[in-house]
Every structure is written in C-alpha cells, then in structure tokens.
Amino acid sequence: MGAKITPRYWLLITILCTFPRYLYAADDWGDDAWGEEEKQGTAIHGFIETAVGDRVSDDTLVDDELSLAEVRARLEAETYQGALRLSGKVDLYADGVERGFDIYLREAVAEFSLTDNVDVRAGHQVLTWGTGDLLFLNDLFAKDWVSFFSGRDDEYLKAPSSSIKVSAYGETANIDFVWTPVFNSDNFISGERFSYFSPQAGTQMAAPRGKIVPDEPSETFSHGEFSARIYGRSHLLGRSSTEWALYGYRGFWKQPNGINSNNQAYFSPLTSLGASLRTNVASGIGHTELAWYNSVDDDGSNPLIPNSQIRFLMGYEQELVPKLTLGVQYYFEHILDYDALSAHDGGSIYRPDEHRELWTMRLSYRALQDNLTFNWFSFYSPTDQDYYHRPSVKYRFNDQVNLTLGGNVFGGKQKQTFFGQFEDASNLYARLRWSY
Amino acid sequence: MSKFIGIKSLLIVMAVSALNTVYATELTDANAIVSKANLVAYYAGNDGRSEARMLITDAQGREQKRQFTILRRDREEGGEQDFLVVFSRPSDVRNTVFLVAKKPGGDDDRWLYLPGLDLVKRISAGDKRTSFVGSHYFYEDVSGRSITEDSHQLLETSDKYYVIENKPLDPNSAEFSRYIAWINKASFLPEKIEYQDENDRVYRRVEVLASEVIQGHETVTKSQVSDLRSGGITTLAFRFQHYDLGMDQAVFSERSLRKPPREWLQRDE
Fold it and tell me: In terms of residue numbers, what domain contains A357?
C-alpha cells in the first residue's frame, strides 16, 4: 500500500509546487525580435508534463491501481543546414507505474529534397495517412495502444518508426513510399499495464505470467515493411476538391495475433491494398475508405493465423452550431473464408464473429475563446455489444500551461470482445503541461 | 497678351479636368466601392507573403500570443485564392499549418496539419465566423468575407470615407444584423468596420491602426479587433510583407502542409 501512495503523493507535490507560478506568466510582445534569433540557429522547445491516472474499478490481475503516473520532460530541437532540415524530439520521464526512469525518442529526422519534385524524410518519425478518425485501415504504421488507453496525449497514439519516406509530386498524382527496414509493431496491450483476454487460455491474463512476449520477425530485408500511397485531388463533385488515395502495404500484422508451433505469439505476414476518398459533402466533410487485408492463411483454415479480411469505413463530420462539431463513422471488418475457419477451430466459443461492426461518434465543443475544449469520442459495436468512451476536457490557462482531464471507459456484454476485455482498464486521468 | 490668355485657358482646362477626375473617382455605386475595397484589402498583387503576430488580451487582461506566416496566391482577381498559414509560436501550435482554398460563393476547402500526429485533417467549411486560433479575429477576417454574401448600401460620403452599410442576404448565415464599413476614399482600404446586433448595438469593431504603401499597394501593418461584449481585444501586426513573388500553385498543396515551403517562408532580407 505504501508503495502505491508514494508515486501519487510525489506527483501531487510536483503539481502543487511546480506549476502555479507559471499559470499566469505571460508578457506582451514588447521588444521581442520577431523570432529573428531562431533564424540562424536552432529552435529549442518542449514541455514538462505531469500526469496521473487512476482505475475506476480494481483489476485483480494487475498490482497497480494507477494506470498512469509520470513526470515527463520533452526537448525538441529543429535546425536548418542549408536546405537540410534536422529535427529531434526526446522525452525523459519518470514512470510511477513501471517504476523507473526512461528515455523515449519521439523523432530524429533529416529532411531534404532530392530534386524539385522529390522529398526524402529519413530517420525516426511518426507517419500517418488515411481518412479515419481514430480508426485505421490503410494506415499500418505503428500505434501505441498502451499510451492511448492510459490517457497520455493523443499524439502518443502514433508511435514513431525508423523509416525512410520518399515522396514524389506530380501534376495529377503524388506518391509516397515508406520503407521501414526493421519491423515495428504496435505497442500492444501485453498484460503489463492492462490485462487482456486470451482466447487460448479462455480467461483474462496479465503480467508476469500472462505477459505476451511475441516472436519478432528476423531483421532481414524481406522482413522489412513497405508502405505506399498514390494520392491526389480532383474535382469530382462540383467545385470542392475530392481527395483520393490508393494504398499498399507489405509486412506483418501489427499485433501478435498468430500462434506459432512453439505456442508463442508472433506477427504473421500481411499484405494489404486499399483506397479512400474524402470531400466536402453538404456543409461537412465526408470520407470513405476500403482495405483488403490479405493474410498468409490462404484458405482461412488455420485458426492460429488470422484470416484475410475486408475492412470498410465511411464517416461524416459537420459543425452543428458554431463551435459544436459532430462526427459519425461506420466501420466493419468482414472475415473472409469464415466457413473454413469455423470448420477447423474445434468449435471455439471465442471465435470472432464473421462480421464486426463499429460506430464511432465525436462531439467537440470550444468555449472561452477556444481556451476550453470539450471532446467526447465513443466507439460502440452493435455486433460485439461493447463500447469505449473517451471524454476529455482541456483548459488552456495561457500559452504555456494547460490542464487536461479525461477518461477511458470500456465495457461490454462479453469478456472476450475487443473493448469488453478492457473493462477493468477503465480509468480517469489528469495531465498538467507547461510548454516552453 | 495672347500668350497670357493661352496660359490662362490652359489653367482653366487643367482645373476643370482635375475637377472631373475628382468627380469621376467619387463613386456612388456601393457595389463598385465594395468590390474595389475587397481587391485592395485581400487581392494586392498576384501573390504575397507576410509575417503576422497577434496579441490576444481578454477582459481580465490575460495575454496570449500567436505568430505565423501567411502565404497567399490569387487564382483570379477578386475570385478564388489560396492561403497557407504556418505557425511558429506558441510552442504548442508550432509547425501547425493551415491551408485554405477560398471559393467565394461556394464552400472553401480547408485543411489543418497537426505535426505531432503527422495528421492532415480536413476541416469542414463550416462557420467562418468563429475564432481564428483563439483570437478575436474570425477566419473570415483573415481570408475575407465574400462580397456576394451581403447587400451593400452607401450611407454617406465624407471628406475621407465612403460609409457603407452591409446586410447579410441570408440573415442566418452571420451573427450580425449589419455592419458599417468606413472605406478610405483615396486608398479604398476599409479602415474601420463596426458590427451591429439586431438592436443596432455595436458589439464588435475591426480597425486599421497603421498602414503603409508596399510595392505600390496600400497595406495594413497593424490592426485591432475589439469584442465590445466581452471586453477582449486582439491586435495584429504584420511585417516583412512582399507582393508578386511568383509563387506557384503547387505551394498550396499537401506537400506544403507536411513540408512548409521554406523558399517562401524564409525572410528575404
């Protein structure tokens, strides 16, 4: 018990002592030199953040009651050497849940143009594409679900990978090609901070015994990840420009959802193809995206490897009244060769449904000159009968200090479903950040 | 003698033609005045760049700042144009980029790039009369309100100003019932705009505090918005303005969201 109180107490002290002095520290522009000092040299920025999150209910499998307890210092540096841009972002943090200090490299990139129409971005970087709002079909770049579930800033959902991105720009279409030489999985729920449901064991599992330690693909050229996107804008609907894109990926499932002959989790090979459209519809934005996940389990008969899938998304977002925006998305995953799967999995009661549907809703509202923002994002699956709500409110005291309060609330009818398994991970959190 | 008469008549001719010129430029058509003012305020040159700084002060005197660079290119004079806004301060919005394809009479295309997530977010054309990055300026103040959305009436012609009353054609499209603009007769710069509510009370004022002629264009260098209801004020200062740089249409693309065009953003000293 004492060990549990310590980090919480320590965080509280930090919050109380460190921050109030910065709350209203703002000067006018005065003689400030329009940032001329940054013109030649290196721009240094960052933040210091303290965050604490507490479970709403007990997870008997996980020791820690806190789902988040950390003090984090971010250092960002950006400089230009001629036309070469160099940027680095690194976090140093003390983690009260995992008990220790750690360094997290967020970004270390070099950016330059090969020709007038070709850009290269090489190094440790965050990569994103696709049209979904917190739903990813063709974006198979790494995600950090542990950060997302525990209430860290949204930015941390996208995990960085060490990649080379080459972008070529043309009159009617552009191409992005990304090579990630060493496979970079999601930071998945492994049982360490949050427990998960294991269909093999038929029960909820957590570390140390239930920690998922997957077999990683060997570091060879053919085990790298290759992602490509061809995209452009055209006037398909009236005067609005419609964004279109085609996607391709060759690599591995980002979560260890295969079981090898040693009964160990591993990342089975995956290739995918997809397409998306996004445009103004009525007075809002409409988007749709399709992906075909082609698994190595060709005929779908091996229950230890995920089957191929079709994934589909459509969504619409509109401002309802000034400052209040509503976004709704409909998504489904359809498992292919389902008959073969059900014929070979020994009649497993945890077999996923052939068709999984998901609705999401985002409501956001801005008040007090945009200094106060409310956000409510919900996932709800009518087929799995489970849900995940993400309410949050952020207040910006000034340009330096902001406070975020929020929650991650999971639930469902069954213990094995996508969100249902995380019911005991439900938490409320607070983050106070000072930016410099 | 004849020489004297000659000069005298020449002087008379000059005076009369000068008077004619004055009368010719003293416009009476409100639509003509407004469309000329629109060109002066938002369409100077074929393209332009400017650095901008906002000081946002709320009723309690608390201050916030924004610093950004705006690039603009006109597709057609008085018509469609593109804007790219790249933020440099404060640090939590640093490297955020905003791209707008402005389409008078239609819905604008708008995108926002969030560098932390490497996310290009498309944002709905929505309400352009909401706060621009937390300031008292509206999106529409920055990119210009389409002149076809209001009816215009010349209320008064003073020594210095055309005073124009503007009423929204669709009263539900804006929060004001009308606004009065004081347009400088010589420069056609709208120097003061006052927004009135349905009770004819002025609740919002936009003023030019300073301007100068840059490359032949009368250019605002400092302006201010006062929210008379809340008591909040935002001042906006512009510097390092240049016109007709020869920017290409490709500057206003997704490429520039992810990799802001340093060629145009960098100061040319």
Answer: 56-435
The complex's ipTM? Answer: 0.90
Residue A409's pLDDT is 98
**Distance (Å, rounded) from C-alpha A339 to C-alpha A337?**
6
For B172, nearest residue in chain A (alpha carbons): A321
For A389-416, the three-class secondary structure string (H helix, E strand, C coil) is EEEEEEEECCCCEEEEEEEEEEEECCCC
If contacts are CB pairs under 8 Å, which of residues 133-152 in chain B contact chain A? Answer: 133-136
The topology (CATH level 3) of B2-265 is: outer membrane lipoprotein receptor (LolB), chain A (2.50.20)
Average pLDDT across chain A, whole number? 90
B107 vs A240: CB contact, 8 Å cut-off?
A: yes
Q: How many CA atoms lie within 13 A of A14 on its CB side?
A: 20
The secondary structure of B150-175 as a DSSP string is EEEEEEEE-SSEEEEEEEESSGGG-S
Question: What is the tens place of the pLDDT at every residue in B36-81?
Answer: 999 999 999 999 999 999 999 999 999 999 999 999 999 999 999 9
- Vertex B81: Cα angle to B78 and B86 (nearest 5): 135
Q: Does residue A34 register a pLDDT over 90?
A: no
What backbone phi and psi angles, to 5 degrees, belong to A63? Answer: -60, -45
Q: What is the pLDDT of residues A370-397, one digit of tens each?
A: 999 999 999 999 999 999 999 999 999 9
* Selected residues 366-405 of chain A with any CB under 8 Å from a CB in chain B: 366, 369-371, 396, 398-400, 402
Question: What CATH number is associated with residue A98?
Answer: 2.40.160
